[in-house]
Amino acid sequence: MLKAYFELQIRRIFRAPNYVSAFGFFHGIRLLLQVEKILLHMSTELRQFLVPEYDHPIFLRDTMSDHSIFWQCIVTKQYDIDSFPQSREIGKAYSHILANGKTPAIIDAGGNVGLAAVWFAQAFPESTIISVEPNQGNFEILKANTNEFGGRVRPILGGVSNEHTKMRIINEGAGS
Fold it and tell me: Are 63 and 42 in contact (CB under 8 A)?
């Protein structure tokens, strides 16, 4: 337990600049202390986090998986394409679709708990996001995290394949 405590403190020290950069000093430190903690492999307890720039709470279980997705999608903004050369072309295509009176669609295949869909809904407010997730536990949290977007985010319980088939998750023991 002492080893886990020290590992947590080291993780917090190294991640603090990212939290502060993403959310400002006060909210960054608050979220760092709330999110970066000793976590379980599996948990069903749902907690909500208030995150600046997001109009509704973000729901996570106290698991490494959920908190890792929060780090990737919300803190470090892994889907932010502004620094990539393709971002200009994507922006043009997005604007072109809108100018033609259509709605851009984003497919989130493997939606997990919905944090990528939440990020996409914030970044592309005129789009529809289709988020596909095969795990029932993750799917329920995906729905909670995307509910505030109404029909703009469409959660689908299932998987993605090149053919119509039945699938099953073969690593269920690994947690959601």
Answer: yes
Q: What is the pTM of this model?
A: 0.86
Burial of 112 (0-12, 13-18, 19+ CB in 10 A): buried
Tokens encoding 10: 């080291």
Say what the pLDDT of residue 64 is: 86
Q: 160: which 2 tokens?
A: 């993605």
- CA–CA gap between residue 159 and residue 166 (Å, rounded): 9
Distance, CA of 63 to CA of 61 (rounded, Å): 5
Listed in sequence order, the DSSP H helices in the chain are: 2-23, 25-35, 64-70, 87-99, 115-123, 136-146
Per residue in 3-50, pLDDT (tens digit) is 888 888 898 999 999 999 999 999 999 999 999 887 766 777 899 999
